[in-house]
Amino acid sequence: MIRIEIVANHSVEDNIMEALKHEGAGKFYTKYPSVFGVGSRGPRMGDAIWPEENFALVIWCEEEEARGIERAVQSVKKSFPEEGIKLFRPPEVVVPPPQVIVQRDPPPAGFEPPPQVYYGPEEENS
Fold it and tell me: Which of 11, 14, 20, 47 could tie 26 with a disulfide, CB 3.0–4.6 Å?
């Protein structure tokens, strides 16, 4: 699974949602309707001094859908080059399987086995 985050100005929210729909991507998401911060396009604080606000979408998907999401966001960025639109896709982290240690002799006195490592549930959360 791939995690994608989209942070953009509210002014392009409808455009992004339409572009995602057009690509058939991003059907399942978590939306943060008001997000404040400072990016390359300046502050978005939702107050009297910096009144603009952003929104954020977090989408978990497979590679094919991720490419559709990237195309959708790119098309909106092309239409609105002056708006703050960012897509974040952290690099995938591959967790190696746990090592299997075959113990042939009894451990030396004072030996403590390493702690168990938890790699998460085998099934996807719903």
Answer: 20
